[in-house]
Task: structure prediction
Amino acid sequence: MNTASIPADPDDHTPWQVELPSESDIIPGIISRKGTPLRHSRRLLHAILALSLGVWAAGATAQAESPNQPAGSPATQASASKVGASSIGYADGKYILPPLPYAYDALEPLMDATTVRLHHDKHHAAYVAGANAAAQKLREIAEGKLDAAQAAKWAQTLSFNAAGHNLHTIYWTNMSPAPQTAPQGSLETAIDRTYGSTANLVRLFKAIALGVEGSGWVILGVDPASKELILYGIEKHQNNQIPGIIPILACDVWEHAYYLKHQNNRAAYIDNFLKLVDWKNVENRYNTAIENN
Result:
């Protein structure tokens, strides 16, 4: 196996050594209750993977790599994988880093090229490596190669890194250098039904984003039970998450997403993010979530 140094927390730059998986049939996790591992067959664990990827990746569309992407970057390397699979961040039995659908500087002046490069090639890549490492450890535990007492720790590590990877995969495609600037069609109808107007949604979106304590996200998602929109904030990538909700719009409010350009002015960053949102992408995700659930 190969080893690589990645930060345990992408905002904590103290590296730790992990073993990167070399086998293709990665099992994503073991469910535990109150820290006690439960017995699971390989079939059940594969089912968990299929369900989690289906929920998180709903509505993802294939994105072509920009010709301005530098050779040898993680984005370029990821493009070698199957196009359909890479758009959801998973291919050939592993989590992968999808290529950016635009050049690093394409979002300027609203989002600077240096931040986009570091955010995608370093922070997002770290979540991919961490998710694969944790998935491999959990597989080894399931096969009896490692002590089951480690299961809770690695399940928590997988939760953090896989959630971060999946949300970032949505985040990059939610933005565009030439976005559709307002909701239309079925999405606009759903927004009006739930929030009264797009202006009301945006007002609430900003308030929730500003209210996220520490590092986290603000998410617009679809509740598969009611088919209605839900807007909520989460801490880190997974704390206060609503299970089963299908994200269709995700705004990263970790400081690494905005501090180089906006410093501590999160409000200005949120305003600029909303100017970059491609509401057509959000509508496509919404329609897929409704049709598939």
